[in-house]
Amino acid sequence: MRRNSDNSDNSDNSRIKQTAADSRRGELREIPPGETLPSKTWRREPRRTETRPIESDAPSAQAGEPAPRQQRRGTSLHPGAWWLWSLSLGTAATRTTNPLLLALLIATSAYVVAARRPRTPTAQSYSAFAELALAVIVIRLLFAVVLGSPIPGTHVLVTLPEVPLPHWAQGIRLGGRVTTEGLLFALYDGLKLATLLICVGAANALANPARLLKSLPGALYETGVAVVVALTFAPNLIADVQRLRAARRLRGRPDHGVRGLLQVGLPVLEGALERSVSLAAAMDARGYGRTADVPAPVRRTTAALTLGGLLGVCAGTYGLLTAEGGRYGLPMLLAGLAAALAGLHLGSRRSLRTRYRPDRWDLRAWLVAGSGAAVAALLTLASAHDPGALHPGVVPLVAPALPLWPAAAVLLGLLPAFLAPQETS
Length: 425
Hints:
Layout: H1 2-24, H2 79-94, H3 99-116, H4 126-147, E1 156-163, E2 174-179, H5 180-206, H6 209-214, H7 221-250, H8 257-285, H9 296-321, H10 329-347, H11 363-385, H12 387-390, H13 404-410, H14 416-419
Antiparallel strand pairs: 1-2
Helix pairs in contact: 2-3, 2-5, 2-11, 3-5, 4-5, 7-8, 9-10
């Protein structure tokens, strides 16, 4: 009897092991008729989980190739370098009215933006700045047609009815002759302002405003927050308008005209108000506005250095721009810059904040900023040595020529398209 009980126990243990193995494999073994399962087993089928690959926009790696890695934060370019490059191109645009050089500056900024623009909502604002620049040119031409132009011309296109004005409005006229020379002068002038706007749009598309805010000194942090909020308002507004217009098109509703503008404007305004309230709540929750206890003599010294430095910069700049201030202009400018920097350094003690993973100013940032500064410096020298090439006249009416070495200087602005890293987010 004892041997039979041992045999039955062994058979039960073997059935338990077989049933457990079947359950681990997710299979159900068919039980023959008349056979019962041991009391220690179960017939519940384990839950099967299916793993799916995560979809990604990045291309999948081929066999034998290493998988692509995410771009590290340390490899991204400093946002201040992009702003220096863009503002340098804008400075170069103010040095000339040659439409060929201005068009070359626009093409340079557009190529760099197309090559190095990150995939962020604020990066889509470049097209909006281009449309604003086109509107500026149209408005400048309309002013030249309606209000006249100070440039005398002999090629009359049309003569509009002139409205008589009182004697106190001398120098202003409404209507009259519209000449080709006046329109061409207005076109050159409007194109210069449009190029400056497009360069600022390139900075908005390439530089992250939040990262730029982290790079400011502590004394300018509160001012920087206000500037960054103002700079990000326009791209967010443009993104909201594009999103709402696309949604209305998908629903088959009109998105053009006065009616479409009114029906899109209200949700955009509501979104802007909600974003402002959320920003205020986030700033309050993070303790924005807290300052450290600084002694009164340090505060007074900081204010005196900052104010005196700014006045010195203004006086030095005025001295450099005038012929009489050539002696004291440069020393006053340098002394003002030194005093202002010292004031900013002392003022940074009042700001209680830290920087998480700060952006580094590396060699590529120096090269990007240096390429823009080289364009501005070379065009400034060209405007001083050959002003006729950079400022073509309209009387007599002649076609503008492209100066070679200023054009080659503008092409230096293309270096960021090959030196800067591609930022994905």
